[in-house]
Amino acid sequence: MASARLPSAVVTVLISLIALLLYNRGGPLSRLYLNAPSRLPRENNLSQPSIKFSNTVRNCEDVILDVEEGFALLSCDPSRDVWNTVMGTFIDPTSSPSTGIYIWHYSTPDTEPEQVKLLDFSRRSQEFHPLGIEYHAPSNTLFIINHSPSGPTVELFRFYPSERAATHITTLRHPRLATPNSLAVLSSTEFLVTNDHYFHRRFNPFFALLETYLAFRGGSVIHVKLHPNIADGIKAASNLMQLPFANGIAHLNASTIAVASSSMNTVYLYSITQPASEDSPPYLEQLSSISLPFHPDNLSVDGSGKLLIAGHPHGPTLEKVAKSNRFCHSGVAEEREKCFTEGLSWVAEWSEVEGVKTLYVGDEYGTSTTAVRDVGRGVGVVTGLYAEGVYVWRD
Ligand SMILES: *[C@@H]1O[C@H](CO)[C@@H](O)[C@H](O)[C@H]1NC(C)=O
Ligand SMILES: *[C@@H]1O[C@H](CO)[C@@H](O)[C@H](O)[C@H]1NC(C)=O
Ligand SMILES: CC(=O)N[C@H]1CO[C@H](CO)[C@@H](O)[C@@H]1O
């Protein structure tokens, strides 16, 4: 009888899934228990940490530093509360007027982040949800991953730091850039970008979640080559490799690329070999991996060559913040009662010699995604996906 066979088939599938989970995923899954908010051991090894600019910026996913000029660029989107294509929130696609890129001259005392004017960019009000950003200073090119409601894009701008303005060059779209998350520039016409999933949270929410929790190799690293005149867009996009939930990507040194896999609690290191011919993509080969006690989100490399890794101790807590953050900013008192603010953060650093060192685990500043450090000036900045302001420390 079909009705009797169906449940047993379901049970078989469930048992196989659980077996697969335990076989492959024991480490990351044990963190569901160990890193629950009531158990997570807090520690703070940052010096003089403080939350700054909570009235100016919130929901900043990314921060990059220009240590030559002494400024930070922040990518912030308050409307992420109601539109997040990675976490699966699809309530209202309109961007907030304060969604955008902010410049903060951290080397000048008493300055605040100021919003960068995005000129010739008609998609600004409806179609702008910036995620990862990257800046190629020699050519003044700013790369912004945009989770636009009409489909993901990479927006290219010419940036004029002293004018706090950027002019739009072109919009890049490609079938291989389906779930773009993080970007690492190789040259003015070449970059690597991660896709976090194969299944899109918007169109296949169930499979996207299954992909995350079972850690299928659905994420990827794509090499994008632009035309010599970058306004002409993409010349070629090649898939270099697949890995589960690919997130942050950074150039560790001339020959090594680091890629974070959020669902595997691991950062993978790959050697990057330039191709023999101009028209082929580079080649990545895995060198080693770094196991972490949390879900790594984004990566950066400081002036001394250390890898900074920011991320999330506990997936379900992050999901809870993602779902309720909009209530915290609601004008309606009843809605504000549903606000949940105890987001968790984990920031660590890694070097070949010293291994992994924890810099911060806590909830004063939650949902950490990216950490950067200017070694010369002794300034560090952490951004939080659903946090007000940024977390700044001074060494
Ligand atoms: C992560 O940080 C790097 C800079 O280290 C940046 O290029 C990238 O776009 C960031 N990604 C996200 C998703 O914030
Ligand atoms: C780059 O970093 C890797 C990983 O730490 C290391 O093994 C390699 O020797 C470094 N290469 C250079 C050229 O510094
Ligand atoms: C690397 C380091 O300094 N770790 C310290 C961080 O802070 C905790 C206490 O909060 C210490 O136990 C660690 O040794």
Mean pLDDT: 89
CATH H-level name... which superfamily?
A: TolB, C-terminal domain
Low-confidence stretches: none
What is the strand content?
35-45%
Q: What's the architecture, going by CATH?
A: 6 Propeller
Radius of gyration: 21 Å
Content-based structural category: alpha+beta
End-to-end distance, in Å? 70 Å
Question: How much helix, percentage-wise, in residues?
Answer: 10-25%
Number of domains: 1
Bound small-molecule species: 2-acetamido-2-deoxy-beta-D-glucopyranose
- The count of helical stretches stands at 4
What is the subunit arrangement here?
single chain
CATH domain fold name: Neuraminidase
Can you characterise this structure?
The protein has 395 residues and is of the alpha+beta class. It has a single domain, classed as Neuraminidase, CATH 2.120.10. The protein contains 4 helices and 28 strands. The chain has a 5-stranded antiparallel beta sheet with strand order 1-25-24-23-22, with no helix packed on it. The chain has a 5-stranded mixed beta sheet with strand order 9-13-12-11-10, with no helix packed on it. The chain has a 4-stranded antiparallel beta sheet with strand order 2-28-27-26, with no helix packed on it. A hairpin with a 4-residue loop joins strand 19 and strand 20. The radius of gyration is 21 Å and the shape is globular. The relative contact order is 0.15. The model has no long low-confidence stretch (mean pLDDT 89). The structure holds 2-acetamido-2-deoxy-beta-D-glucopyranose (3 copies). One 2-acetamido-2-deoxy-beta-D-glucopyranose binds next to strand 18. The site of one 2-acetamido-2-deoxy-beta-D-glucopyranose (NAG) has 3 residues, from loops.
